Amino acid sequence: MQGSVIRRMYAGFTLIVILFVITIMIMLGGMNQIHQYFGSVSNSSLPLVSLSNQTSVQLLSADKSFKDFLTTQNEERMTVHRDEFSASMEQFGHDLEKLDQRQYGLPRIRESN
Description:
Blueprint: H1 2-71, H2 75-103
């Protein structure tokens, strides 16, 4: 009787260890999948977000130059602000074109109506 109790204890302990190992393997598989998804997002979305932010900054810079142009009364400053606005709008146009070209290689997200 004593041997059967010890055998049951060993069998129970072995079962717990096996379940523990299986659980760890499942968790590691899930972590690898999450890591792959994160790598995919990092490689495809982050450059697009960075370029989008750069485009937004250029547009804000053009807006600032335009507002400065509207609020100044000095002719020389008006010329400086007009040149700044033209340069900012030109850079915004280039950044917008790059953003438009970059987005074609990425998968589309369905819009829900």
